[in-house]
């Protein structure tokens, strides 16, 4: 007896990754349906060794579907997630549309699994921002051990965070540089090839960007409202994998060795931290992997109880598709949903 799962936005980077991960992890599906907008209707996507024809979201009936994995952008989610939820289908939404709604759980299974119990108010569960998700996987066990007071994070975010258009722009601009063609910036505000851009999402009144604000708000909602967080989010010319330089101030003493031991035992974490050439992780090694990697763990002598970390993860997986599927697995493991269609 399996669950009927719809992947909304199945033709996008994250939607395709969701289909891959459902199959890879052996999620108990009875049927998988690929959905997208009308213009993508009939497009074919892969699910294991099967090919699925994409159906139109606008005409799909969710009444016999158990779970909708939503990766179609905030505007689509705002319109459709409440309608889908009312049909008795649980929406796990990858956009920012419902992350800050107090009636919608915001979940990273390694961080705050118990918060999932509140999903039934709207039948919607939110997936956090990719940069927040990987950071909190590493911070949660350290917070449990020594209580984090303050977080200062600088991100180095890959272009895949901006979707297929972002990846295409980096490729096209890089080729243009090599053949001395004009370099056009369309998706990003400035040239991304051989450059870095300290601007992700829109600017807010106080000078922060929305991406930076998300990291602050989501950390407080999922980990601890008392934590102080300041972020600088930067787009870099990397195809897949977000990196973060994180400075932490704790209430209680904690050494680098203690942190290393804690993180080695923590779910979802993989410590690669040798004090030698190449003894650390970079984005290219994280691509296609599920773990949140932690390197460069060291004490910060400029503050009491301070640590520095380097955190890297595949943003399409743990930052998006993998975390979404893990939330679905958590629903099933806790017996919070049952398949609507009984086995024949």
Structure write-up:
The chain has helices at 13-24, 74-86, 130-146, 163-178, 210-222, 256-265, 283-286, 317-333; strands at residues 3-8, 29-36, 44-47, 50-53, 55-56, 67-70, 90-93, 124-126, 148-157, 228-235, 242-250, 269-271, 292-300, 306-313. It is globular and about 60 Å long. The strands form three sheets. The protein has a six-stranded parallel beta sheet, with helices on both faces. Strands 10-9-11-14-13-12 form a six-stranded mixed beta sheet. It contains eight helices and 14 strands. It is of the alpha/beta class and 344 residues long. This is Aspartate-semialdehyde dehydrogenase.
Keywords:
344 residues; alpha/beta; Rossmann fold; Dihydrodipicolinate Reductase, domain 2; 6-stranded mixed beta sheet; 8 helices; 14 strands
Helix-strand pattern:
EHEEEEEHEEHEHHEEHEHEEH
> What is the strand content?
15-25%
Q: Indicate the mean pLDDT.
A: 96
Total count of strands? 14
Shape: globular
Structural class: alpha/beta
CATH architecture of the largest domain: 2-Layer Sandwich
- Cα(first) to Cα(last) distance is 9 Å
What proportion of the residues is helical, as a percent range? 25-40%
CATH superfamily of the largest domain: Dihydrodipicolinate Reductase, domain 2
**What strand order characterises the main sheet?**
5-2-1-6-7-8
The DSSP helix count reads 8
**Rg calculated over all Cα atoms:** 20 Å
The tally of structural domains comes to 2
CATH class of the largest domain: Alpha Beta
Uncertain regions spanning at least 5 consecutive residues: none
Largest sheet: 6 strands, parallel
CATH third-tier fold name of the largest domain: Dihydrodipicolinate Reductase, domain 2
């Amino acid at each position: 007896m399996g669950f009927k799962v719809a992947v909304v936005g199945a033709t996008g980077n994250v939607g395709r990754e969701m289909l891959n991960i459902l199959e890879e992890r052996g999620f108990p599906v009875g049927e998988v349906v690929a959905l997208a907008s009308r213009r993508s209707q009939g497009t074919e996507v892969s699910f294991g060794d099967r090919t699925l024809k994409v159906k139109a979201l606008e005409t799909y009936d969710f009444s016999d579907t158990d779970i909708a994995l939503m990766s179609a952008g905030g505007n689509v989610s705002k319109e459709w997630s409440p309608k889908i939820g009312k049909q008795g289908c649980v929406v796990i939404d990858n956009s920012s549309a419902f992350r800050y709604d107090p009636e919608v759980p915001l979940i990273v299974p390694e961080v705050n699994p118990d918060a999932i119990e509140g999903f039934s108010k709207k039948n919607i569960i939110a997936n956090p921002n990719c940069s927040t998700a990987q950071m909190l996987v590493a911070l949660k066990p350290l917070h449990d051990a020594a209580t984090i007071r303050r977080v200062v994070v600088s991100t180095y975010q890959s272009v895949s965070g901006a979707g297929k258009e972002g990846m295409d722009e980096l490729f096209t601009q890089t080729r243009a540089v090599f053949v001395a063609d004009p370099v056009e910036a369309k998706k990003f505000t400035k040239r991304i090839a051989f450059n870095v851009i300290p601007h992700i999402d829109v600017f807010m009144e106080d000078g922060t960007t929305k991406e930076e604000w998300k990291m602050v708000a989501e950390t407080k909602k999922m980990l601890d409202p008392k934590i102080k967080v300041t972020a600088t989010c930067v787009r870099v010319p990397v195809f897949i994998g977000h990196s973060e330089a994180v400075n932490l101030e704790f209430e209680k003493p904690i050494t680098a060795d203690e942190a290393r031991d804690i993180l080695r035992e923590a779910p979802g974490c993989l410590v690669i931290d040798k004090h030698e050439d190449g003894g650390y992780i970079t984005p290219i090694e994280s691509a296609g992997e599920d773990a949140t990697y932690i390197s460069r763990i060291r004490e910060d002598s400029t503050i009491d109880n301070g640590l520095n970390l380097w955190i890297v993860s595949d943003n399409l997986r743990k930052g998006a598709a993998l975390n979404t599927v893990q939330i679905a697995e958590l629903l099933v493991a806790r017996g919070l949903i049952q398949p609507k269609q009984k086995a024949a």
